[in-house]
Write a structure and sequence with these properties.
Chain lengths: 349, 349, 349, 349
């Protein structure tokens, strides 16, 4: 793997949108959200990993958070979807990994949750797993990350700055024929006089005609069109699951603006959850009637725009932070190299 | 039209389910709900009408109610569906009428709403209209009810007992080859120690092998399989739109128990709304954040069962209250007669 | 209304995407598709109209076409949605008009279809109507277009070049705070060696930060964010309704690239249909089993990209062809003027 | 486990519906469909298993079958849902197992499929797994079936008669407070003069007020209301994925007729696929355009009724064939016994 000096988009003097970012310009600007990676790089063939996102630091199964899933193109293996839709909540951390690792990721989330204090008698839980296909750099058929490695991503989760690029679930992903990976961004918006944070984290692995902040990126030749993306949205705004679904859908606005081909082979998913204490579905509140403060339909539009902006920027960050990667193409059984996007080319625009 | 003495199912000594009914055993047991009919019977060919359901006595556009729509088989022309899904609310009364009258019903709801005090500058509203096809008894192509007649149904809406059978939107409908129509029923259930009312009103116009409270009704020969049903659920339980959707879906449990064939030609729709003051989306609450008390997922199941029971009973009431009707079959251009279900046969079971 | 000389985007030397356009760069490049407008401009207050799209020149009720609807944000009154989803087809022409005209448009489609030769005994039909809200220029509460005017749009439908801008259903619409309207564009793409046409027609009435072919349009000050868009996609590619839905969804890719805010108040709908003779659901084919040639999932991606490109260009055409319009704001009860986009500013970029 | 003599519903002289059954009255009446079980009964605590359903005897990944999923209540962990919806097909066998075994079942399907001849370069596949919660008899937290045990179910799949009751994925399930399990039934219906087979297999684990062929089953006291059901529909009728979805939805008609409470905690899923050679999506057909013969909307209703009947009967078969089971309640950490339904009580009705 190359040792070039990678930076985030804003360090190149390029910005997206007009809302302010949070302090870290990361999903972790939403208080309590933690992110963990496990990166599996071994020999010539293993270039994969997993990334965990925890909505809060407590027991998520006991204190569930309202959530929603939006599927733009469902050629993917996202786990947990139907229960999220039915109940409007998630009750576990989220794991991102590769396409053939979903079963092992579910197993890791189950083990993690069953082992938590207070969950000794839990017999049902809905593990949430997103994936994209890293087989252009990784021997995806070989069973990595293992269940134990998946667990390491969960264990590694922490608040604060998020490692981006060819790391965790982004270790082997490819975007626009260039190296993709994990990227994040955030916005702070005022709704009815109150500031709220919105953060997005993406695992980019798709294609099209790359457009960076409105300008085509023309430096490379053949651009790849296939692949997928998973986008996770966190917000501290008090929202019901119906409006969280609408938030999640706005990720596709950011996706489209990067020049995505939105092709048949894409698995394009966005999950949104609220971390607001007041809408958390605690054991106590779930006993009968509870009052949840929620933002009205009439005032959510600024949050929608924030999601569009943060999604677009998170995607580009996943590329500017990713490094050229040598690995193995499991579809063709050949060595492969995927170049990082040229920061020089971006600066020259 | 025959002058036989029609009664509701319970008057025949037959009951459905195990929960108590409300005082009227009608959708109007949910406080504030009003129902109005216009019945159009003229000459040999006009056997149609419209039925209005008002969620509360105020200005529904200003004080919207949370609502949801469930579509079991979408071969129908239900108006207003996508906005109900997106915003989780209704902002107008509901009109039921015949298949080719939906446009005129929208027009009537628009006129009604635009004319209300406080709505002088309203420029967008989502009229909600359900329909089934009464062309086996009615010259449906002839443009009745007119817009003015639709308006009469809205104007006639009142709380209290609901007229059932071959009336309003049920004037020309057919169920199981027998006369269908408007029927209603209600249940009172206790959730976490608090009693809530659930009421259902149906426009029955479908078929299959009729089963009344578990027993096949074998009195008639050829049973018709086609047609549709629209079911409206009202409750005073404080529910979010997501759980109202689940309530609406349970109508199909009641429908199935009557022996419905659930055929290709069915337009099977259920709309549910909550009348609870505390979840009403008033002008004031829609300005920013508002706290809404809602029942938790964990405790809603008794309401689900209440809907199954009330739906089944409302359907049978629509038949036992309906009278044999002579009219015109617009599909065959011939006179037609649809017999009422035999109360004697039901009593003898 | 101003008499400035308006042109389409390509006449300004600006193009979108990389696929070729059809001969007319219009939805009517898809053989058989016809478009008709009625434009209602009267006095100071009436600035509205309707636009009809006919999928083929025959009896659409008898020879239905496979179709699908995609809803991005459902704050709208689109009529016919649930039956399109259930049956995967449309059986009437499509009318676009204003928000409060949907009922009258349904009535006009019903009259049109019932009156066609061969439909003498038709008793059920699913009128398809899209709308956006032209109340910023039009006295939308005043009941125009009338049912008869709606019928005129249907009667006016013809193949060949399509009139764009402030015409038909676009007479009073507003996009990005500038004059929107009707726009169209098309692409020709080769799939497995066979060329197919894809055409898009839009009624633009939404907002955000306008981006034209990747560049922000900065000429005006306060940009409006609210509003809606309806997009109609026609193709001669043989597609099943499932893949037509995916085609329809790609319209939102084009929409996002124009800088759409995708706000709460948007009613963003896309309808797609195939005109291919071989997938038409004729009376004969509907009798039992029929063989339909359809493109495989694996090869549809070029059509998806074509839709993204044509949608984006159709939107911009709706603006470059629209003229500055003086009218009446029904929400504020005041005169209003909406300026056309400056072609000079676009040329100078 | 008891050794009582268990029989299918028809052996008790009770039948459901009016269509003929297939030769075996099983899902395997649909030619080519194979079913395999692994049953894990060990010590006092392990009462679980898995059941595999293979749509045909070839390489399902290469020769995919059109399929659709219907979700009535999505409180479940069904895997593979979004890709089934998007592409209208399945490309792997289906595994049913317990709630916490979904990850291991995915892993087993992946291993199975990757190892098949012709799949050496496959890097993406969509494993389909259904589940219900057998924790009232099984130590569900203990990780059984293992991945290897899941694989045994796949390896055991065979055509011919299907073992029912407390076997495979039904080993530890509970229905109406009585022992549930695996059940199956089939129907043969004529559509436009051609006979088609429809088979249903269920994993029953839900509750309500049990109704057997229209009559309440009153023999037991406290009836349990919670739980889930997964229903698999196979047919040799040539259907597109859209009509397969409608077929799947009709399972809920059969479910409702058994007295299901349709409670909050249910995970109620139905998957339908067509085994017709002519609609199979072979490698060859997926290259470009292929012609698929499909039944028209207008003629599918008899298949809908067949599904209602076969679903109801499959559920009751799952109970009449199940044996009283002693095990372990993982939610309460106590031994538990679930009685089989009394065949004597059924005969006496």
């Amino acid at each position: 793997m190359s040792s070039e000096n990678r930076v985030r988009l804003r360090a190149l003097g390029i910005s997206v949108g007009h809302y302010d970012t949070g302090a870290l310009n990361a999903i972790t600007d939403v208080a309590g959200v933690a992110v963990g990676h496990v990166t599996c790089v071994e020999g010539e063939r293993t270039r994969t990993g997993a990334t965990a996102i925890l909505p809060h630091g407590g027991n998520v199964f006991q204190d569930k958070v309202p959530a929603a899933l939006a599927v733009f193109n469902g050629f993917g293996k996202f786990a947990g979807s139907t229960q999220i839709v039915e109940l409007g909540e998630i009750e576990t951390p989220v794991l991102l990994t590769n396409t053939l690792g979903v079963g092992r990721a579910i197993e890791a989330i189950n083990r993690h949750t069953l082992a938590q204090t207070g969950n000794e008698r839990v017999v049902s839980l809905n593990a949430v797993v997103g994936e994209t296909n890293d087989s252009r750099l990784n021997d995806i058929r070989a069973g990595r990350p293992t269940v134990d490695e998946m667990s390491q991503a969960l264990a590694a989760a922490k608040t604060g700055a998020v490692e981006e690029g060819a790391v965790g679930a982004g270790t082997g992903t490819v975007a626009f024929g260039l190296k993709g990976g994990i990227g994040t961004s955030s916005r702070v918006v005022s709704v009815a006089g109150v500031p709220y944070s919105v953060g997005v984290l993406v695992q980019s692995n798709y294609g099209g005609k790359l457009t960076v902040a409105g300008k085509p990126y023309e430096a490379e030749g053949a651009h790849d069109k296939d692949g997928s993306i998973v986008m996770i949205v966190a917000t501290d705004a008090p929202l019901c699951s119906r409006n969280l679904k609408r938030l999640a859908e706005r990720c596709f606005g950011g996706l489209a603006r990067t020049g995505a081909a939105l092709s048949n082979g894409s698995g394009d998913y966005a999950l949104a959850f609220s971390t607001a204490e007041d809408v958390r579905r605690t054991t106590e509140r779930r006993k009968a009637v509870a009052a949840y403060p929620v933002l009205s339909n009439d005032v959510v539009s600024p949050l929608f725009e924030a999601v569009i902006e943060a999604s677009e920027e998170a995607i580009i960050n996943s590329m500017t932070m990713a490094t050229t990667t040598h690995g193995y193409n499991a579809g063709t059984d050949k060595p492969s190299t995927i170049n990082a996007i040229s920061l020089d080319a971006l600066k020259r625009r």
